[in-house]
Every structure is written in structure tokens, then in C-alpha cells.
Amino acid sequence: MGLFVRRTFGIQARLMMLAVVTALPLVALGSLFILRMVEDQREQIKQDVSHRVENLLWDVDRQISAERGGASRTGGVAEPAGRRLRGLLPADA
């Protein structure tokens, strides 16, 4: 009898380790995929909101021009509201 007794894991412990070692990379890859999908969705929503704001600004310009009779009647002095508001939007939008 030696001083060092080597104890091995049972079959259940080995199967559990195999399942954990197999599942961890799949969970990690799944998490990365979900994070990337969320980021892409966030960017798509950001672009959609930017386009909607741009379209609303054009509608405001068109309605103001229609009510004033166009820029030619005002002498071109008044800058359309949409252009002023577009200047407030971030450049990357």
C-alpha cells in the first residue's frame, strides 16, 4: 500500500464533465450571436427613426410652404423649419 492513492472519477462525474465541457462553448457562441443580433437590431431601429424624422421634417416644410404660398412670396427670407431642425440632428444620423 502506497502513501498516494489515486482516486478516479466515477462514470456519472465523467459524463457530467463531458456535458458541461460540450455545452459551455455552445452557450458562449449562442450568447455572442444574440448580442450581435441585438446590436444589429439597435442600429436598424436607429436608422429607421432617423428616416422617419427626416420624412416628418420634409412634411413640415411642405405644409409650411403650402400655407405661406411658397418661399417665392416671402422673398426667400424665412428658412424652412425642416432645414433648421435638420441642422440640429447629429451628423451620423
Number of domains: 1
DSSP summary: helix tally = 3
Helix content bin: over 70%
Beta-strand level of the residues, as a percent range? under 5%
Distance between the termini: 76 Å
Mean pLDDT: 83
- Radius of gyration, CA atoms, in whole angstroms: 32 Å
Biggest pleated sheet? none
Overall SS class: mainly alpha
Element-by-element helix/strand order: HHH
Report the strand count.
0
**3D shape:** rod-shaped
Which stretches are low in confidence, meaning pLDDT under 50 for 5 or more residues running?
Answer: none
Helix-strand layout with pairing:
Elements: H1 11-68, H2 71-74, H3 81-88
Helix pairs in contact: 1-3
Summarize the structure.
By secondary structure, this protein is mainly α.
Keywords for this structure?
rod-shaped; 93 residues; 75% helix; mainly alpha
Can you describe this structure?
It is a single chain. The protein has 93 residues and is an all-alpha fold. The chain has one domain. It has three helices and no strands. It has helices at residues 11-68, 71-74, 81-88. Helix 1 packs antiparallel against helix 3. The longest helix is centred in the middle third of the chain and has 58 residues, at 11-68. The chain starts with 10 loop residues before the first helix and ends in a 5-residue tail after the last helix. The mean pLDDT is 83.
